[in-house]
From TrEMBL:
InterPro entries: MFS_trans_sf (IPR036259). GO terms for cellular component: membrane. It is a multi-pass membrane protein. This is TSCOT protein. The chain crosses the membrane at residues 67-86, 98-118, 124-148, 160-184, 196-216, 267-292, 304-325, 332-352, 391-414, 420-438. Residues 230-252 are annotated as: Disordered. It comes from Nothoprocta pentlandii. The keyword Transmembrane applies.
């Protein structure tokens, strides 16, 4: 007897990782705006009275120094646990590298809420970042998400599957960023600034953790599904539609589903391209919030939220780009289009003096998200399914180490060039973006 179609549909829905991606990114978008404004207000209150321009520069350097240490702790602490957790995910259970980082996020954001309510010193956030990283952090969480996304997708549609996950991530970030500024200032008459915003972030993380533990199911791999379909098809117990799909799969896909002999040169070049590109992106995005707070833009929390939301629009345009380009271009060509898009946009950002020019720069970056998920898709085609977690976390750790070093260096460069040319860091990112094209 066959299970009812409704039960089959429910089982398939439970393999979706998208609710976790959406909820965690919504929470992250809330917290990004909240933390930036809490840190800004903290140093604004602790600075001694001085001329406005000097006060603004002192505040910028204080906020920048906070983020240097915060990003170092947040980036380096996952090095202790990320690989081990991903290996456990490959060998024991795929949900381990998802649930443990979500628990870390929940605790660390709770500490931020206590900081706001109890007037704790801002240095508490260094401890929160350390706990977040030791439980895996974004490094382990995203590697686990990519592994689950790759497991249930066919080789021919994997790039599209991974960019769909990125699209959900971006849409959630867009909505969260749009709402974050209003949530930060909207309840300030009744509650401390940021209390409601961080509380919403904590609620989202709690939902994601509970969903991952009690609802989420690990999808079966494409090749195991194919084998099962063939074996049950011989007995005549399957519907024609069920047996037809695996039987008509192309020979090229069957080859790709077999154990893969990885090309070391291809893997090295993909890693090199990803690291150079991440260096360009992370460096620019780390100093961008500081750039927006300073003259000539001097944005408010609401404008910061709008600016962050504009950054998330590229998740939609990059998805559409992959959807269209994958029909006529190779993966490497799509990656290079994305790298060129980011490089051109960040060069424009270096000369932003007015708000409208910021949005023009963001519009030029419309395909900037394509490179990394497409690189992950290409890597998954060169390794066996049982190694997805390890390969993805190695890539993520490489990006984290690059990001930590880049964040520190870029923040110091930004401080040094603050009074000379505040857009200098964006020119550096343009150069690194161009260099990332070479390995591809």
């Amino acid at each position: 007897s066959q299970p009812p179609a409704a039960m089959l549909g429910t089982a398939a829905v439970r393999t979706w990782i998208e609710p976790v991606v959406a909820g965690s990114q919504l929470a992250s978008a809330f917290c990004d705006t909240g933390l930036l404004m809490v840190v800004k207000n903290y140093y604004n209150q602790t600075n001694l009275p001085s001329p406005s321009h000097a006060l603004q520069d002192a505040e910028q350097k204080a906020v920048s120094n906070f983020y240097i240490i915060y990003n170092l702790v947040l980036g380096l602490s996952p090095l202790v646990s990320a690989y081990g957790l991903s290996k456990l995910g490959d060998k024991v259970h795929r949900k381990i590298p998802i649930c443990l980082p979500l628990f870390g996020y929940l605790v660390s954001k709770s500490l931020l809420l206590l900081l706001i309510l109890l007037n704790w010193p801002i240095e508490v956030m260094y401890g929160a970042a350390a706990f977040n990283g030791l439980t895996g952090g974004f490094t382990t969480l995203w590697a686990g998400v990519m592994a689950l996304g790759s497991l249930g997708s066919s080789v021919s549609r994997r790039s599209l599957r991974l960019i769909v996950i990125e699209l959900v991530y971006g849409l959630a970030g867009f909505l969260g960023s749009m709402a974050s500024g209003y949530l930060f200032v909207g309840f300030s008459n009744r509650y401390r600034e940021g209390t409601v915003l961080v509380g919403c972030s904590i609620a989202c993380y709690a939902f994601c953790l509970l969903y991952s533990i009690f609802v989420l199911k690990v999808p079966k791999t494409a090749d195991s599904c194919q084998a099962k379909a063939k074996s049950t098809g011989d007995g005549g117990n399957q519907l024609p539609a069920s047996t037809g799909a695996p039987e008509i799969s192309s020979s090229s896909e069957n080859i790709n589903l077999a154990p893969v002999s990885p090309s070391k040169l291809t893997i090295v070049m993909l890693f090199a391209g990803a690291i150079l590109y991440d260096l360009a992106v992370v460096g620019a995005m780390n100093v961008l919030p500081l750039f927006l707070l300073r003259e000539p833009l001097s944005w408010s929390p609401v404008e910061i939220g709008y600016g962050n939301a504009a950054g998330y629009v590229i998740f939609i345009t990059s998805f559409l780009g992959v959807f269209v380009f994958s029909k006529c271009f190779r993966d490497t060509t799509m990656i290079m289009i994305g790298m060129a898009s980011f490089s051109a946009g960040i060069l424009i950002m270096a000369f932003v003096q007015w708000t409208f020019l910021f949005y023009i720069a963001r519009a030029v970056m419309l395909f900037a998200l394509i490179p990394l998920p497409t690189i992950r898709s290409m890597l998954s085609k060169h390794v066996e399914g049982s190694s997805y977690g390890k390969v993805f976390v190695l890539l993520q750790l490489s990006l984290v180490i690059t990001g930590v070093a880049t964040s520190t260096i870029y923040n110091k460069i930004y401080q040094s060039t603050l009074n000379w040319y505040s857009g200098f860091c964006f020119i550096l990112s343009f150069l690194f973006g161009c260099l990332s094209l070479l390995p591809l």
